[in-house]
Predict the structure.
Amino acid sequence: MERQNVIVTAKRILTSLILTSGLIAIMALPAMADAPGWRITRLTNNDLYDDSPMISGSNVVWDQNWERVLFYNGATTIQLTDSGGEQQISGSNIAWVGFDGSKTEVYFYNILTGITTQVTNNNYEECLLRISGTNAAWSGGVDYGVFFYNGSTGITTKLASDAGDQQISGS
């Protein structure tokens, strides 16, 4: 467990160094930067802490100062929320855990429609969010169980109680 924390911390430090320098981008190895089909695009140029980028196709999502979730669609940067983190992107969908003033909730954004849906609204903390296509999974509730959101139906189902770091794959 300690080794895993060191790896996660190292990844965050590297990501933070890249993003703090304003270099969040659709990236390739430097030697490949001039190769056909690759381009590096500077998305930020600020003194803020841009962190945890995720890329799906030409779409990029990241958080800024652990507060805002920002989305770059290949042409424009859009601020999705002023209270969020743990963002994930898959295809044309973005999900994040946002603070509603007293606790965290799960939110889902459809890139194609521009609609944000608040998936949870309860008295518990949500965390460890994962997304695949129109589906999302996270831990939360009174017993930190695993919950599954089917974006096609809008239905949330509790899958397990007292679970750990879930993964999700497929739509």
The longest strand covers residues 50-56.
